[in-house]
Amino acid sequence: MTFHILISDPLSEDGIYPLRQAEGMNIVMETNLTPEQLENRIDGFDALLVRSQTQVTRGLIERASNLKIIGRAGVGVDNIDLEAATEKGIIVVNAPDGNTNSAAEHTIAMMMSLARKIPQAFHALRNQNWDRKSYVGVELKNKTLGVVGLGRIGAEVAVRAKGQRMNVIAYDPFLTAEKAEKMGIGYGTIEEVLKAADFITVHTPLLKETHHLIDKQAFEIMKDGVQIINCARGGIIDENALYEAVKSKKVAGAALDVFEQEPMIDFRLLELPEIVATPHLGASTVEAQESVAVDVSMDVVSFLTTGTVRNS
Ligand code: NAD
Ligand code: MLT
């Protein structure tokens, strides 16, 4: 029996070895398809493997008459219409742990870039401008980091921030006093965290409840001169409200890895010198990409050949 697997986003070649070595897997890699081309191509495939770029819409799922499993090589499944998949009995698997470390490291890198204005200073230097006055930063030591969403990545960020001698305070609906105490961090309501923090980093999934969690009202209760980091999902922070908050100097700076629309088409935020940004690179390390690809490949092989998976 042959199973047909379509990989529609670039995945680590080393990471898909479980698929390559399994018997009866016909692997097709087509990573430049437009949404229309993908809809015309999907029929007949048993499995679809994606990262965050492919939008697995209801329309696509309806055209996939043979599809049994969708593998998301990464954490967020917000690019997959889970309801449509469930209605058709298609199982969705992700790789929740494989890129935790990379995303946490990227968050810390972004926070340090923000605090010391490293990208801005490098940009000036590249333009042959030796300017030591415009790029005075702030130390992280003794500053308070507010972590909104203390799951896998948020918790790793908290541990690393303590290594920078920051005070950490977190909000997560599932955070208990015991866990906070064990981690040596403070905790509070979201309002308390937003009020207390010098730096705020968000690490929630993008859900209906977290869409624009950080909006105009949220900015209003923050400290003047607060700095914000988003390496989770575009849409958790209201970009228009952020733009206004930076313009008014309420927010001294923001470091963004993710955007409401990706690939980005509205570059207005990047016109502000207080913004540093990367194009969704949080999980873009050799290690993370191999790890997430291995995890979903193993799940796809397991499901197609035995009908079971580790997580779904
Ligand atoms: P996780 O599921 O381990 O943690 C998410 C946490 O958010 C949970 O503890 C949950 O209780 C909490 N949460 C849910 N609703 C909340 C709310 N309203 N307020 C506060 N907390 C809330 O997920 P994770 O692996 O830590 O991933 C976190 C985010 O990072 C996700 O959005 C994921 O897609 C994203 N991510 C981005 C990159 C990147 O490349 N930039 C890489 C990996 C993950
Ligand atoms: C994730 O949710 O895992 C990240 O956003 C990384 C990716 O898009 O692959």
What is the percentage of strand-forming residues?
15-25%
Unique ligands: nicotinamide-adenine-dinucleotide, D-malate
Main beta sheet strand tally, sense and closure: 7 strands, parallel
* Rg over CA atoms: 21 Å
SSE series: EHEHEHEHEHHEHEHEHEHEHEEH
Mean pLDDT across the residues is 97
Give the spatial strand order of the biggest sheet.
Answer: 8-7-6-9-10-11-12
State the helicity in percent bands: 25-40%
Number of E-state strands? 12
Count the helices. How many? 12
Poorly predicted segments: none
So what's the overall shape?
Answer: globular
* Helix-and-strand structural type: alpha/beta
What is the terminal-to-terminal distance? 24 Å
Descriptive report:
The chain is an alpha/beta fold. Helices cover 36% and strands 17% of the residues. It is built from twelve helices and twelve strands. It has helices at 17-21, 35-41, 58-62, 82-87, 100-116, 118-126, 152-163, 177-183, 190-196, 216-221, 239-247, 286-306; strands at 3-7, 25-29, 47-50, 69-72, 91-94, 144-148, 167-171, 186-187, 199-202, 226-230, 251-256, 275-277. It has a seven-stranded parallel sheet, with helices on both faces. A five-stranded parallel sheet has the order 2-1-3-4-5. Helix 7 (152-163) links the parallel strand 6 and strand 7 (167-171). The mean pLDDT is 97. The structure holds nicotinamide-adenine-dinucleotide and D-malate (MLT). Its EC number is 1.1.1.95. Belongs to the D-isomer specific 2-hydroxyacid dehydrogenase family. One of its GO terms (molecular function) is phosphoglycerate dehydrogenase activity. Keywords: Amino-acid biosynthesis, NAD, Oxidoreductase, Serine biosynthesis.
